[in-house]
Amino acid sequence: MRHDGVVPSESPSRTRTLPSDRFLNRELSWLDFNARVLELAEDEGLPLLERVKFLAIFASNLDEFFMVRIAGLKRRQTTGLTVRSADGLTIREQLELVTARTQELVQRHADVFIKDVSPRLEDVGIRIVHWSDLPDEDTRRLREYFRDQVFPVLTPLAVDPAHPFPYISGLSLNLAVSVRDPDTGNPRFARLKVPNNVPRFIPVGPAGTTTFLLLEDLISAHLTQLFPGLDVLDHHLFRVTRNADMEVEEDRDEDLLQALERELARRRFGPAVRLEVTDSMDPQILEVLVSELEISPADVVTVPGPLDLAALMALYDLDRPELKDEPFVPATHPRLSEGETPMSVFATLREGDVLVHHPYDSFATSVQRFIEQAAADPNVLAIKQTLYRTSGDSPIVNALIDAAEAGKQVVVLVEIKARFDEEANITWARSLERAGCHVVYGLVGLKTHCKTALVVRREHGVLRRYCHIGTGNYNPKTARIYEDLGILTADPRVGADLTDLFNTLTGYSRQTNYRMLMVAPHGIRAGLLEKIRREARHAAEGKPAGIRFKLNSLVDERIIDALYEASAAGVPVELFIRGICALRPGVPGMSETIRVRSIVGRFLEHSRVMSFENDGDHEWWIGSSDLMHRNLDRRVEVLLRVCDETARRQLARMFDEAMGPDVRSWQLGGDGGWTRTGEIDYQAQRLAQVGEHAG
């Protein structure tokens, strides 16, 4: 891949030199995204428990960032190769910048909780107390709770010549305890794991109370019971993050399921990549931890206050509706019901496509109902579907099982390499197999990330195909909090394309050309580059031109360089990007016509949409692919061309509203800084429109 700054133009006789610093760093851009999440926790205009939720999300996001991205950088660093990022930084330089930025954000995160959110929670009767603050009556009850519910599951582990330093599991809370033998005066070190199968927030007082004691505080108050006959000198909380980015050695001659299960067993023993400690940590104990965990002092993150604030989701789950956003019930798409009566999805699709926009349009009464009706319909002969992530009790999977048991041909591609859902997907795959479904585990070397379903139905002696292609997973739980799009269609061209795609996924077909789809790893980057360059040609010729992308992430350098070329030709480019963006917008002579906006709010903006003005013959595409190397090169992804005029108008209106000048959002500057602007809540505005329609 070229990063020399020379970008080929359409004419071989002309080249244009782009500056070497034209890319923003991917890791720092991700940290900027998590900083936007943190800004929501800091926002005093949000309901209090919504702020608590964003504190928890920030912490959970940061955990995954270290388990995957930083772990990946460290693994590459150990190879000894001089690897530079697209913005020219070595791995060491990136890690140094990440460390500094992380410590800054962690401090902000703790300050928001300790100095702002926690006092406000106390004002509304939700308190987190310390053992020393409790009256005798509460301590007596909690001593009984400790004796009956906590003490039996604790295992203090000594560290001495006869007891090697114990394995510390990833993301577990631990107490490092200093004890002394009163007879010899010799100090000892012990590790005590805070159990993760006991509630972290322990109610203090009668049932229904909203006063809590942290589990580690309760354990700390009873350390003498765990080390009888010894003097407990000190104790400190710490937490380790380990590499969880598995590399499955895929061999065509080995069962992929067995290979993945082997790697899952290894994951828990990945090397440590981060050590979190409280700001009261004893330097000598810290030295022991750094040495035994074989971690660099640079990988130590000091946290002022409680560790693992992802656990705050337990407080968000309290029944305090006055402290949360107004509840929202998704509406059934108007094409899919007559009043309260559900309509046949098949009959509806014979009249035209349906674009569903989740969570505003109900997933349960659209996509889920599509699969459920197909499973129950005696005229349906076959259902083929991809599953990347789904919920614990999945109605989609249950419908597929019902369909197979009813004698339908059911083919399910379960992507068992979906990160952190591997074990759940293996379980689903086996359940589907037991029911008689044909289960495929994905392709060697690729993750199947596309969201596709194909239903084959016999109608008056003729076979007709019905399809769903979406931007989000077949997961009814996340469909209530993730913003996603999907097309339900009976377009025979789309049906033919999905038939070809499933033959590729389940057999040995090498199909690369499709009628209505762009499919990675062979077709999406090339297709988008051609369309971006077409817009540049149109602009240079004075024809209508314009590009609009809605993505989670924009990282691919070839796509970014093509957008820079389009901007130089005068193409207006609007980018609506929730997370990572490596493009620098608004730079004179390079990206003056490019605008980048991020919206982070109640719902996770997750859909991917691409739009091209195309000299007035407007093109719209939706699908599963972000513009990153992994999506374009190492995944099976699908983009669908949207041809239904009503759906195209819906997409245009969505973009117009989201990119409006007064919408509350973050704007990216050419220096890589994000600035919050606007007052109109785009998602709330969309909710109001749904409410008006439902009313």
Automatic annotation (TrEMBL):
Cite the binding residues for ATP.
N61, Y482, R578, H606
User: Which residues does the Swiss-Prot or TrEMBL record annotate as the active site?
Assistant: H449 (phosphohistidine intermediate)
Q: Which InterPro entries match?
A: PP_kinase (IPR003414), PP_kinase_C_1 (IPR041108), PP_kinase_middle (IPR024953), PP_kinase_middle_dom_sf (IPR036830), PPK_C_dom2 (IPR025200), PPK_N_dom (IPR025198), PPK_N_dom_sf (IPR036832)
Which cofactor does the UniProt annotation name?
Answer: Mg(2+)
For this record, the Gene Ontology CC terms, alphabetical, are: polyphosphate kinase complex
GO BP terms: namely: polyphosphate biosynthetic process
What's one Pfam family here?
PP_kinase_C
Q: Where is the Polyphosphate kinase N-terminal domain?
A: 23-129
PANTHER family from the UniProt entry: POLYPHOSPHATE KINASE
Question: According to its UniProt entry, what is the function of this protein?
Answer: Catalyzes the reversible transfer of the terminal phosphate of ATP to form a long-chain polyphosphate (polyP).
Q: Protein name, please?
A: Polyphosphate kinase
Q: What gene is this protein translated from?
A: ppk
